[in-house]
Amino acid sequence: MRVLVVEDERLLADSIAEGLRRLSMAVDVCYDGGEALERVGVHDYDVVVLDRDLPVVHGDQVCEAVLAAGGEARVLMLTAAADVDDRVAGLGVGADDYLTKPFAFAELVARVRALARRARPALPPVLKRAGVVLDLPRHQVSRDGRFVALSPKEFAVLEVLMRAEGAVVSPESLLEKAWDEHADPFTNAVRVAMMTLRRKLGTPQVIETVPGAGYRFTS
């Protein structure tokens, strides 16, 4: 899952981003609406966590730009105002959900995950294939009943592959979905993550390399 966090309170923005990264989400961060407009024009996000009261460009305009981009991104709008009129106004410009500050991080995570399920074809929160079980709510992976300890990045790569349901996933697509914008497109990060993921999942191998195309999770 790739998430954009737009929040002018830097400490809060960085805290949200760090918490989501620990849950294997690829997270980009910006601190004003102008920068957010640039990001949504370049990257395909699953969810945008968007503060409504932003400097440079108001959050409402950013929300409208996300919708105009025509992608599948869903918007979770944050606000310090708790009155009904403010929430209605935010939803009226296209936000998919609303969260009033201060909020519990666990609730934000639950809302982000719920919106991500709406941003793409619905799949169950527990993915099962070839003896591998990926439990998103518990952030756990097992194979044939054996617990498999994965890093956040390995977990994210495995999720992308399993969600593809046997389709080939290119290295570029993996970088887009499992890494943030700071990832070097010429790096060997995908190859290294794939190597360690295969080793941890054990034999027989369930991740196939398709020469010149990418990787596929086999059945």
Task: Describe the model.
It is built from 8 helices and 11 strands. A hairpin with a 2-residue loop joins strand 8 (140-143) and strand 9. Strands 2-1-3-4-5 form a 5-stranded parallel β-sheet, sandwiched between helices. Strands 6-7-8-9 form a 4-stranded antiparallel β-sheet, with helices on one face. It folds into 2 domains: 2-118, Rossmann fold, CATH 3.40.50; 126-217, Winged helix-like DNA-binding domain superfamily/Winged helix DNA-binding domain (Arc Repressor Mutant, subunit A, Orthogonal Bundle), CATH 1.10.10.10. The protein has helices at 10-22, 33-40, 59-68, 84-92, 105-118, 152-163, 171-178, 189-201, and strands at 2-6, 26-30, 47-51, 74-79, 97-100, 126-129, 132-135, 140-143, 146-148, 207-210, 214-217. The model has no long low-confidence stretch (mean pLDDT 87). With 219 residues, it is α/β, with parallel strands linked by helices. It is elongated.
Strand and helix map with partners:
Blueprint: E1 2-6, H1 10-22, E2 26-30, H2 33-40, E3 47-51, H3 59-68, E4 74-79, H4 84-92, E5 97-100, H5 105-118, E6 126-129, E7 132-135, E8 140-143, E9 146-148, H6 152-163, H7 171-178, H8 189-201, E10 207-210, E11 214-217
Parallel strand pairs: 1-2, 1-3, 3-4, 4-5
Antiparallel strand pairs: 6-7, 7-8, 8-9, 10-11
Helix pairs in contact: 2-3, 6-8
